[in-house]
Model the fold of this input.
Amino acid sequence: MLIEKSSKGCSVAVVGAGIIGLCSALKLQLEGYQVTVFDPSGAGSKCSRGNAGHFATEQIFPLANPGLIPQLPKMLLSPNSPVSIRFRDLHKTANWMLRFLSKARYKPTTHATQALTKLNSRAMGSWKKLLDDVELSHLISSTGSLLVFENEQLFERYQSTLNAMTNNGVSWEVWHKEQLKSRMPNLANSVKFGVFFPDTSHTSDPYEMCLELKSAFLSCGGKWREEKVENVQEKVSRSVVVTDKAEYGFDKAVLATGAQSVPLIKRIMNIKVPLQAERGYHLMVTKNREFLPFPVSSADRKFIMTPMKSGLRLAGTVEYAAIDSPPNMKRASMLKELANGLLSEPISDDDFGEKWMGNRPSLPDSLPVIDQTEKGRILFAFGHQHLGLTQAAITAELITKMVNGDETQIDLSPYRLMRFS
Ligand SMILES: Cc1cc2nc3c(=O)[nH]c(=O)nc-3n(C[C@H](O)[C@H](O)[C@H](O)COP(=O)(O)OP(=O)(O)OC[C@H]3O[C@@H](n4cnc5c(N)ncnc54)[C@H](O)[C@@H]3O)c2cc1C
Done:
């Protein structure tokens, strides 16, 4: 067995090179550990590749909440709904759905809001520090984002959400029709209100961001192995990473395997963690790169449009399916109708490009797992649902503190793995 050593005298394996693993690996390598990343598919090849690029720090509410229940039947029965269940996979997803719905009560919602706020309020500070350290701060544009409303009653009902945001330190301002017309001329007349979130940011290419993080990691001396990890064994003096090719010894190992974490957690901890592949899709509009100054999401239509290097990215929709089911690209095509209703001029069919599907790693309480074993030789960072890009750098900071044995700046008990034991 190969045993890794470092100048700091401590080696760390990071399993998974999505945005969570990449940020954690880079942060640990910068801290002086000798880090090796394991991923058979390369950097950012799964969910982190095609997301909407929105650092959505305003999204502090869990997905299951008391307001969801009355809307659910209509959402699930309409074929064009932003939320759908793949009925042939129901035997694999029903248990998760029940656990998810059991969280749609006042107490769990308040608990999750507090825990999400703790991560989101620190998210951009951590991103700034990480990217400044490797001179990559140009990858993030901090120009805010806009949530638009076409239905007046929906906007009125949203007032209580805005009040809750204020109470949790989220800044926002309402834009009325005249402001929207002058500032956002490419939006349709049907848009009546906008809520602008000045402290949010976006990246114009989430995949490029992953590749840049990988390059920075390698430049700092990080190591890379394109191998699938089959198991991680915790021994007294080290953790052993077992791959499809060999076994390697490290002082510590971090698991950041996104929606594919279930089999590894079962092998390591003997827990069947309720992690659901909550699918989302994107559809690229190859033109219209300069069409919007920042991400615009629709409260009525439940999708987002983000200006990217390669065009305008239409993204969103939720589909509960088994992780190994093939994508249903009709869900990506649906985004075309949604966008055409929200823009002043319809997009020509010739201007639509790539369709993509990603598996969001979602736990029933909408909170990630950021934790370590009792012995502290194996750490866990997965389950960031709709907010993995947003929370990647703060997760990396917390993981690094745990590897160091330092006290973390926030109480990590809401993110414990054992809440599912
Ligand atoms: C349509 C859509 C839009 C989104 N928009 C946003 C957004 O605007 N803002 C936001 O914050 N979030 C957004 N998200 C969510 C975000 O993309 C995810 O939360 C995030 O990408 C999860 O990152 P991850 O590193 O945990 O997982 P992944 O990116 O899936 O990475 C996991 C990695 O682990 C590797 N792996 C798995 N098993 C093994 C193994 N056994 N051995 C070695 N490697 C392994 C995989 O190959 C993969 O590379 C969106 C998601 C979707 C689908």
About this structure: Residues 274 and 390 are 22 Å apart (CA to CA).
